[in-house]
TrEMBL record:
This is Uncharacterized protein. Belongs to the HAD-like hydrolase superfamily. S-2-haloalkanoic acid dehalogenase family. Coiled coil: none annotated. The keyword Hydrolase applies. NCBIfam families: HAD-SF-IA-v2 (TIGR01493), HAD_type_II (TIGR01428). Keywords: Hydrolase. It comes from Gemmata massiliana. GO terms for molecular function: hydrolase activity, acting on acid halide bonds, in C-halide compounds. The keyword Plastid does not apply. InterPro entries: 2-HAD, HAD-like_sf, HAD-SF_hydro_IA, HAD_sf, PGP-like_dom2, S-2-haloacid_dehalogenase.
């Protein structure tokens, strides 16, 4: 029977220890630390955003249709037409004679053509009215709405546009599913800046005033919403100067990126 040399015993013990250690610990590691928990996602500053529709849709996207109808007059006509739309809304609101905003838009169209001494044929009239049902969304609109929804923010409109105008444009842009509600001031027979128009947001969302941000396109609309008491963000798409009035929006930018950061409370 062979006998192990006494000096081999400590050597074998050391080899066994090394092998066992290698099985327990990966090469080059001491002890694996538990993974750090992911930082908690901060809650949005507000629960909902109520949009004027022109924050989302480019009001000037009717210019090509107008230019086709009245060559060389597209931009000028469009600006005058839009101004008359709002003016008729204001006048009807003051005298309490509400009408569907699509009808208001058509009345403004007819007046503008007459004022500019342009021949508004039935075909041109139909084509130009159709342009207000097929507005182009701003390039940043859909992605910004998705970011807000992903953060749990509810999204509605508070717009003078009629329900037909709201739905047709959202469907055309394929963004209808990004809204919790397409809310028209027509439901209570008002136009902005009537306080009762802005109050629709609280009524339909079932939220407090300070839980809602109103996103305005026009300076006058920002003034109306702020005067009502909403936290107001002015998306100043056309780079206009602020209105010289006694209430200012809480914040402003020329695109929706600033609005999203404001609502979510991100830098």
């Amino acid at each position: 029977m062979s006998m192990s040399h006494p000096i081999q015993r400590p050597l074998r013990t050391a080899v066994v220890f090394v092998l066992l250690t290698a099985l327990v610990l990966p090469t080059g590691c001491s002890e694996k630390k538990p993974a750090e928990p992911a930082p908690a996602q901060a809650s949005p500053r507000f629960k909902a955003v109520a949009f004027d529709y022109f924050v989302i849709f480019n009001a000037n996207s009717v210019v090509p249709a107008v230019e086709k109808a009245f060559p060389g007059r597209g931009a000028e006509f469009t600006k005058a037409w839009r101004g008359k739309q709002f003016e008729y809304g204001f006048l009807r609101s003051i005298v309490n004679k509400h009408a569907d905003f699509f009808k208001v838009t058509e009345d403004a169209l007819v007046y503008t053509a007459q004022a500019m001494k342009l021949d508004l044929t039935p075909e041109k009239r139909a084509s130009l009215m159709d342009a207000y049902l097929n507005l182009e969304p701003w390039p940043d609109a859909a992605e910004s709405l998705r970011k807000l929804r992903a953060a749990g923010v509810r999204i509605i409109t508070i717009a003078n546009f009629s329900p037909k105008m709201l739905k047709a444009n959202a469907d055309h842009a394929k963004i209808t599913d990004l809204f919790d509600e397409l809310l028209s001031t027509e439901v209570n027979g008002t136009y902005k800046p009537d306080p009762k128009a802005y109050a629709l947001g609280m009524e339909h969302l079932k939220l407090k005033k300070d839980e809602i941000v109103f996103a305005a396109f026009g300076g006058w609309d920002a003034y109306g919403a702020k005067s009502f008491g909403y936290t107001t963000y002015w998306v100043n798409r056309f780079h206009l100067p602020p209105e010289e009035l006694d209430a200012k929006p809480d914040a402003t930018s020329n695109d929706m990126a600033g609005l999203v950061k404001f609502v979510l409370g991100t830098p």
